[in-house]
Automatic annotation (TrEMBL), chain B:
The keyword Thylakoid belongs to this UniProt entry's keyword annotation: no
Transmembrane segments: 25-49, 137-155, 183-204, 210-233, 245-263, 459-478
GO cellular component terms, semicolon-separated: plasma membrane
Pfam families assigned: DUF3526
Keywords attached to this entry: Membrane, Transmembrane, Transmembrane helix
Organism of derivation: Pseudoalteromonas fuliginea
Alphabetized PANTHER family for the sequence: ABC TRANSPORTER PERMEASE, ABC TRANSPORTER PERMEASE PROTEIN NOSY-RELATED
Identification of the protein by name: Delta 1-pyrroline-5-carboxylate reductase
Length: 434, 482
């Protein structure tokens, strides 16, 4: 043990005397810390926003309820907040939350006309991308590893010490192993320490932290091994580094880009514009169609209301909401195809990522943190489910009972309750959302 | 510099090229660089032209379907609404900028300002988070790396093989030597920029102005010059090839990979912006004070009613020669729009402020500077999107008020009030489809080249400052070259 310790201590001393290595490690620590701290601040901003929205939403709803009593008017003016709160790991992988919306308000009108509105953040910042721990680890860390490990052997060769060192050292480990280990451990500490701090603050589960640690170590070992293997025979350090950076460019940029091009060629998606146009035409045509046609289409998919669709005047709310739903149903096929295309693309991208460790790690992290496209699809799925709940709540009042009672209004479905109930149904979880 | 010196510089540059062509690494790097640039130019051009074509088509369809609507109650058309599509700027074939990150179509209807829908990035593979095959990305991020790979040893190599002191003692000054190596690297820059320039010149055929094309190409030339100077400096300062390489690789990681993201993250933290949903609550509270334009009995319109009766000198709204419901709709639309615009303006200001903070990082990273410069000059920056929002808002307001005017003048008030009595009454409360022609055809153009060039001034200054500082540094080092 003391043998090992002795060698490590010696190499640690060597490392401290090489200024550029110290600078490199300090920079790594600084960038990692910045990523974690900004991630924590972003997540807490998102949480606060959701809290503010919740209370504003409630005030607004009560406000509408004091002004309107008619079921149709209530349904028209009442918007309902939906949101997707960041997970306890989101600080480490902010993921796609700057592209996909995580907050949305809907009312009882046709959902296809509302759901594509996005309350996105500043697109110019989204285009640059945010720095988060997942990025530091998957994209940046390999470069740091390359800078740390590429010149292990070449450096000694060019300084003419190589042969001397190899012949005089007591064992292979004593010479190279200790040096590699010291560099690796220090790098790991600089990268992971901020993450552990962040995980403690955010209250992430120990299991997740351990899992991510394992992934990180495996990923870094891969890159370090690659560097050492490539550096072993070479005499020119820059040559080794060039090749390694080339591999990194291939893995981080070229393979994903080619994959993206291929996937976009393979998967055809209907244009988003077509969905809303279809929905709008359906909804607007309904005004000019005989009421019976709309009501027949409505009853076909909602037979429980078939005894309540007769109309007394040229305008009734039940007809209005019926044609909204019929509009949704007409656009349903396109809308499904649109969502399926997005899902298919994401799935295929998963296959591409097996060829790019950087992507694989990024995807695994965002999956764990529930900040990836799948989480966004799931949120959209929840919104759709919630909208269905709203219909189930309003329709009895619209079709049969008239003005909703105060007690009924107090028991109006809310998104928080809906997702709480959803957790009991395991089949909704996972990739295969339909 | 005398003629003699100039020819020496050219000679050194030629010799550097000879060295590159002999070395496998340099040739590979050059070939990869050119292939990447060329393919990015071609692929992006095809993608953006397709997008432009699709959006033009959708716009035409949308214009047509509005005009083709049958006879209707005019207010129905207010809610039928209209779609506007943001066609990309001609130069976006070189830098699509934020195009994929913000919705490209917007639904325009009465009483509401909707946000843009269908950002392409939401329908993507998420594979291109780190970089995409666009000329902008290739030249901004990868080209500097390629320059480093072939140029890092320019001077340190001479030093390591002990030819430097030999060269210097033979009368070649340090500055001349560096200039020669620099010229060789600049010729590589020229090679990289050629496909870009050719593609940019093509846009002249599609209404892009020469000023924009020139600023674009000059911007990128300045940016890559910064890197050439950085490489020359590192190569002169470090005594060993490996030192020069490590330092340059480190600087590249910092400036090209880390800084742009630090900039955007910092901006989002320093200037937090409330989302649309959140500001919508405040908008709604303000709008509620204005009254519901569908309801003529809303007390908010009492004063308006009195002023009308006075103006037309009649006793009741039934006697008005025009349709009172239409008047109320028009009046309330105007007032609402005022409030909506005020909030929209605030939101845009906040976004601009955020963007500004991230652009300040151009002083510390030339990559951030060229990124903003490129998007601004091309017309794919946040300002262009704001212009799109403002123009579509004008379009929305014009057609809604046009319809309200039809409502006021063409539709009888009594018919209008009885519209829900029975099917015949509903039919009577309609106006001719000819009125739908009030819709103006919409084509989106980005700001004029002059405005864009003006906006990009500070990014140009950032790059020029970098060049000045680095050139000064090289001169200092060049005189003391050993």
């Amino acid at each position: 043990m003391s043998y090992l310790f002795l060698h490590l201590k010696r190499e640690f001393g060597f490392l401290l005397r090489q200024k550029y290595l110290v600078v490199l490690l300090l920079c790594t620590f600084a960038v990692s810390a910045f990523a974690v701290i900004s991630g924590l601040s972003e997540v807490s901003q998102q949480r606060e926003t959701i809290e503010r929205l919740k209370s504003a939403d409630l005030t607004e709803r009560l406000n509408v309820q004091t002004q309107q009593t008619d079921a149709g008017m209530l349904a028209y003016y009442t918007f309902h907040l939906t949101y997707s709160a960041p997970s306890n790991l989101a600080f480490a992988a902010l993921g796609e939350r700057d592209i996909y919306p995580w907050k949305h308000r809907v009312n009882l009108l046709a959902l296809e006309g509302q759901i594509y509105e996005s309350d996105a953040q500043n697109p110019e910042l989204a285009q640059a991308g945010k720095i988060d721990f997942a990025f530091v680890l998957s994209a940046l860390a390999p470069l740091i590893v390359i800078l740390l490990f590429h010149d292990l052997f070449a450096n000694e060769r060019t300084s003419g010490r190589y042969d001397l060192l190899v012949t005089t050292s007591s064992s292979y480990f004593a010479l190279w192993g200790a040096r590699i280990l010291v560099r690796f451990i220090l790098l790991l500490v600089c990268l992971m320490l901020p993450f552990y701090g962040g995980a403690y603050v955010a209250g992430s589960s120990i299991y997740d932290v351990l899992l991510i640690t394992t992934m990180c170590v495996a990923y870094l070992v891969f890159w370090a091994a690659l560097c050492i293997w490539m550096g072993k025979q070479a005499s020119s350090a820059p040559r080794v580094a060039s090749a390694l950076i080339g591999i990194w460019v291939l893995v981080a940029f070229i393979i994903p880009i080619l994959g993206d091009l291929a996937i976009n060629k393979i998967v055809h998606s209907p244009k988003g514009g077509e969905i809303v146009l279809t929905q709008r035409e359906a909804v607007n045509d309904a005004w000019d169609l005989p009421k019976q046609i709309t009501m027949d289409a409505f009853v076909a998919s909602n037979p429980q209301w078939k005894d309540h669709v007769d109309m007394q005047s040229e305008f009734e709310w039940k007809w209005y909401y019926a044609f909204q739903q019929v509009g949704d149903e007409k656009a349903a096929e396109l809308s499904h195809a649109y969502r399926d295309a997005a899902r298919k693309k994401y799935q295929l991208a998963g296959m591409v990522s097996w060829f790019s460790p950087a992507l694989l790690l990024q995807r695994s992290l965002t999956r764990k943190a529930k900040t990836d496209a799948i989480a966004a699809f799931r949120y959209e799925h929840q919104i759709r489910g919630f909208h269905k709940c709203l219909r189930e709540f309003y329709y009895p009042w619209l079709f049969i009972k008239g003005e909703p009672t105060k007690a009924a209004l107090n028991n109006m479905p809310s998104f928080s309750k809906t997702i709480l109930n959803e957790k009991d149904e395991p089949e909704v979880i996972g990739v295969q959302l339909k | 510099m005398s003629i003699n010196n100039v020819s020496k510089v050219v000679l050194i540059a030629k010799d550097e090229w000879r060295y590159w062509l002999r070395s496998k690494l340099a040739v590979t790097v050059l070939a990869i660089g050119l292939i990447l640039t060329l393919s990015s130019v071609v692929v992006t051009a095809i993608t953006m032209l397709e997008l432009s074509h699709t959006r033009h088509e959708l716009q035409t369809t949308s214009d047509k379907s509005f005009v083709d609507q049958p006879d209707r109650h005019p207010h129905r058309m207010v809610h039928y609404g209209h779609y506007a599509f943001r066609t990309p700027a001609p130069l976006s074939t070189l830098d699509p900028g934020i195009d994929a990150y913000t919705g490209n179509s917007i639904f325009l209807e009465g009483h509401r300002q909707n946000s843009a829908m269908f950002a392409d990035s939401r329908q993507g593979t998420a594979l291109t988070k780190l970089g995409s095959l666009t000329p902008a990305f290739i030249v901004q991020t990868l080209a500097p790396l390629l320059l480093i790979l072939i140029g890092y040893s320019g001077i340190s190599r001479e030093r390591e093989s002990q030819t430097l002191s030999y060269l210097l003692s033979q009368g070649t000054s340090g500055v001349t030597l560096i200039a020669g190596k620099g010229l060789a690297l600049l010729s590589v820059v020229g090679l990289i920029l050629t496909p870009l320039t050719v593609s940019a010149l093509f846009t002249l055929g599609t209404d892009e102005s020469l000023l924009a094309v020139v600023s674009f190409v000059v911007g990128y030339a300045l940016y890559l010059t910064v890197w050439v100077l950085l490489i020359l400096l590192a190569s002169s300062v470090f005594s060993k090839n490996s030192g020069s390489f490590t330092a340059l690789a480190f600087v590249w990681i910092l400036l090209c990979i880390v800084m742009p993201r630090v900039a955007s993250t910092t901006a989002a933290i320093v200037v937090p912006s409330a989302g649309k949903i959140e500001t919508d609550f405040a908008v709604k509270a303000d709008l509620r004070k204005l009254g519901d334009g569908h309801n003529t009995n809303d007390p908010a319109f009492e004063q308006f009613k009195q002023s009308l009766l006075k103006k037309y000198n009649v006793n009741s709204i039934d006697e008005l020669p025009v349709n009172f419901r239409g008047l109320v709709a028009s009046e309330s639309e105007a007032k609402q729009t005022e409030v909506l615009n005020q909030f929209a303006q605030q939101r845009m200001q906040a976004e601009l402020k955020q963007t500004q903070v991230s652009r300040y990082f151009g002083w510390v990273s030339p990559m951030v500077a060229i990124r903003s410069l490129s998007m601004i000059v091309v017309g794919t920056s946040i300002e262009t999107h704001h212009r799109f929002l403002r123009e579509t808002e004008q379009l929305r307001f014009d057609f809604v008020q046009g319809l309200n005017k039809v409502h006021i003048e063409e539709l009888d008030y009594q018919d209008d009030m009885n519209r829900n009595a029975d099917a015949a009454a509903t039919k009577k409360a309609r106006v001719s489809a000819d009125n739908w022609k009030i819709l103006q055809n919409f084509t989106f153009h980005s700001d004029s080249a002059l405005v864009r060039a003006h906006r990009s001034t500070s990014a140009f200054l950032q790059l020029l400052l970098w060049i000045a500082v680095l050139a000064g540094g090289i001169k200092f080092v060049g005189k003391r070259l050993l």
